[in-house]
Amino acid sequence: MGLKSLVVRSVLNTLPVIYFSKLNIFLFRLLGFNISWSCRIYASVKIRGNIKVNISENTFIGDETVLTGGDFGEIRIGSHCDISDKVSIFCGTHVIDSRPLSKRIAGKGIAKDIVIGNGVWIGYGALILPGVTIGDFAVIAAGSVVNKSVPSRTIVGGNPMKIIRSI
Ligand SMILES: CC(C)(COP(=O)(O)OP(=O)(O)OC[C@H]1O[C@@H](n2cnc3c(N)ncnc32)[C@H](O)[C@@H]1OP(=O)(O)O)[C@@H](O)C(=O)NCCC(=O)NCCS
Question: Cα–chain-centroid distance for residue 112?
Answer without folding.
Answer: 12
